[in-house]
Amino acid sequence: MDADYLPFHANPSKPEFKAPAGAVDAHCHVFGPADKFPYHPKRKYTPCDASKDQLFALRDHLGFARNVIVQASCHGTDNAALIDALETAGDLARGVAVVDPAITMQELQVLHDAGVRAVRFNFVKRLVDSTPKEIFLCVAEKIKKLDWHIVVYFEAPDLEELIPFLKQLDTTIVVDHMGRPDVTNGIEHEDFQRFISLLAENENIWTKVSCPERLTQQAPDYSDVVPYARTLVEKFPDRVLWGTDWPHPNMKSHVPDDGKLVDVIPMIAPSVELQQKLLIDNPMRLYWRK
Question: Is 14 part of any domain?
């Protein structure tokens, strides 16, 4: 792994918050093992291995029932590690793939049969090279035939430029990590208000209220991120998802304790009804409907 890469927490705490039965960790990854599933030669970072067995052990430790495993950029469009994890988990996991624009419907069907239900479009410039939006639109047309949705990853300053493109995507869209707001600006800042307006005006757009560890200036407290996530959960209760982001690639500030991340959930979804929607109803409707 890279010399400055921080490995995931070796002994996360047991959460004080007890997740409801059937809860879904709707954003996590598997990395390698590299000797079996090599990392992409043009990757922007090299992580530590984070295997399917370690992921599923964490799922059980945290009191969750299911995972949505997201293909990370270090594996490029080779989804082999993802597929291997999905086949091991069976109905307890679904996947989000990254695909080559030339992928065939037959190849997409193989991914679908393994449990993939979405593709990810990454616009974070430090993680991936720029891709013409016409290519993404071509992929979107293909995956729509399988009733998949699209996961998009971007940072708040890039949203304004992306809005016309997002409105061209005629399918459900899930935005990673609340569009990565700068939490030092406050929730009234125009960047976050633009994101709220986007969701309010487009009922096909969802968001993950995940990754306080990436956004905070107050680790490991995360209280500066809570108002952002709670606002989204309360305004759009039927279009929010939550995930650990294990094994937390490219963290620089600290190594997050996954148990403490779970304990943020009742702060952002304070009622049993909101917790049920966030952790069970919404991810099950999106990923397990067929």
Answer: no
> Domain containing 235: what range?
24-287
What total of structural domains would you count in the chain?
Answer: 1
Would residue 258 show up in a list of annotated catalytic residues for this protein? no
- CA dist 66 and 256 (Å) reads 21
Quote the CA–CA distance of 50 and 225 in Å, as a whole number: 26
Active-site choice (25, 49, 176, 245)? 245
| pLDDT tens sequence across 168-220 | 999 999 999 999 999 999 999 999 999 999 999 999 999 999 999 999 999 88
- b/e per residue, 68-80, with b = 16+ CB within 10 A? bbbbbbbbbeebe
pTM exceeding the 0.90 threshold for the entire prediction = yes
As a whole number of angstroms, the distance between CA 212 and CA 180 comes to 9
Q: What is the spatial distance between Cα 223 and Cα 221, in angstroms, rounded to a whole number?
A: 6
| Terminal C-alpha separation, the chain | 38
Q: Is residue 11 part of a domain?
A: no
Q: Considering the domain boundaries, does residue 4 fall inside one?
A: no
What's the DSSP call for residue 281? I
Q: Is residue 53 part of a domain?
A: yes
Q: What is the CATH number of the domain that holds 64?
A: 3.20.20.140
